[in-house]
Amino acid sequence: MDSLIETSHLAGLGPDTITISNVNLSLGTGAARVHILKDISLRVGQGETIGLIGPSGSGKSTLLMVMAGLERPDKGEVVVNGTAFNALDEDALARFRGRQVGIVFQSFHLIPTMTALENVAVPLELAGHAGAAERAARELESVGLGHRLHHYPTQLSGGEQQRVALARALAPDPAILVADEPTGNLDETTGRQIVDLLFTKHAERGMTLVLVTHDSGLAHRCDRVVRLRSGRIESESDAHEQADA
Ligand SMILES: Nc1ncnc2c1ncn2[C@@H]1O[C@H](COP(=O)(O)OP(=O)(O)O)[C@@H](O)[C@H]1O
Ligand SMILES: [Mg+2]
């Protein structure tokens, strides 16, 4: 209970959706082994938006993968929407991810042999959702791609591909959405459209959003900015206060 009291600064945002406690993670073997995340603790309130910034190599992507259950920490605990990842085996963690975690990558990660519709529908089918194709079509329409359902990724622009990836991430109605430099492969105008779409979806659905970005202006559109340096949290600040300062 003590730990709940510590979240009083998030009181207006309700319970935590993501609680990371004393997470340490090393990757690689032998001389190439790197201690990437060092004693990271972070709480993210339900519906909160977090901008995660920091120099290249500071551990942003790795921390996002830990939140998404794609990397397991060596030490520490991750709880998402009330579920402790440590208690889940790989299959259970994959099922949890399929229902509760949406992930958007810089390089889209669409399956090239599948149409836009299939890219969105297949994960829904795998997660056991009824009416996957109809739901996928609705989701693509909601990101402005109703006219591109049967196009393959190579037939789509970068911005359109990222919209498909966003539709895929949002289709299961996840509790959290993590996005790793989602505008990094896009020109400025297209990137801004994707970010606007991301925040529109957040306003509509209220999922918790963690956005990794190099762009501090973009990070400051979030409720809070968390800065990593060399695998540690260097600072956490209210984005709006910091913007005013
Ligand atoms: N699989 C891995 N094996 C060894 N080192 C890794 C691995 N993945 C990432 N790293 C190292 O961990 C550090 C943090 O990486 P990353 O989380 O990708 O940082 P960021 O996203 O902030 O640029 C980097 O120094 C990177 O080289
Ligand atoms: Mg990265």
Automatic annotation (TrEMBL):
Listed SUPFAM superfamilies: P-loop containing nucleoside triphosphate hydrolases (SSF52540)
One CC-aspect GO term: membrane protein complex
CDD domains the UniProt entry points to: ABC_MJ0796_LolCDE_FtsE
Domain of life: Bacteria
Pfam families xrefs: ABC_tran
UniProtKB keywords: ATP-binding, Cell inner membrane, Cell membrane, Membrane, Nucleotide-binding, Translocase, Transport
Entry keyword rRNA processing: no
GO MF, one example: ATP hydrolysis activity
Domain annotation ABC transporter: ranges: 18-245
PANTHER family: IMPORT ATP-BINDING PROTEIN
Family to which this protein belongs: Belongs to the ABC transporter superfamily. Macrolide exporter (TC 3.A.1.122) family.
Protein name from the UniProt record: Putative ABC transporter ATP-binding protein
